[in-house]
Amino acid sequence: TQAVYEEPFVVLMPIGHPLEQAEVIDSATLAQQDLLLLGPGHCFRDQVLRFCPECNRLSVTSGNMQKTLEGSSLETIRLMVATGVGVTVLPYTSVSGYAHASDLLSIRPFADPAPTRIVALAWRKSFPRQRVITLLGEAIRACPLGEAVRTL
Predict the structure, then answer these.
(1) Residue pair 9/116 in contact by the 8 Å Cβ criterion
(2) Which candidate in 6, 46, 71, 106 could, as Cys together with 77 as Cys, close a disulfide (CB 3.0–4.6 Å)?
(3) How far is CA 64 from the centre of its chain?
(4) pLDDT given at position 53
């Protein structure tokens, strides 16, 4: 494998959501929200739940029920958030440069220590074109991935 970059997770919410008042979001605050996640079996869902295991629930807190709803793709979830169904956690690269939705969506970073993930290339040992892997890694690193992304 070849690590390419590390990116933080961010919280996406509809404009006007109460969380918009916060500069940063912590996992305890996230656990109190109606949360939209990818369905079981998606690696990003697993990464979010490792950071915020209490989000893997239907729980009752102070008489209010917080729900975890599922979507089939990050784009579907983004659209569900825009309609006010709840909030979600997304990788930074999936929201950076997404200015055309700025009138519907708001983004907040996590409080430190913020959750991150490492994106890597993986290939079979028997793959005959190692140079292609090197070039692909270099091409991805050359892309403008956003100020919060650390290339590796």
Answers:
(1) yes
(2) 71
(3) 25
(4) 85
Strands of 2-102, DSSP E: 2-14, 35-38, 59-61, 64-66, 68-71, 87-91
Domain ranges of the chain: 2-151
Domain 2-151 has CATH 3.40.190.10: yes
Position 101 scores a pLDDT of 60
* pLDDT tens digits, one per residue of 42-97: 899 899 989 988 887 644 444 445 566 677 888 889 999 999 999 999 999 998 77
Percent of the chain's residues with pLDDT above 90 = 66
* The two three-digit tokens of residue 26, written as one number: 């912590």
H or E segment at 26? none
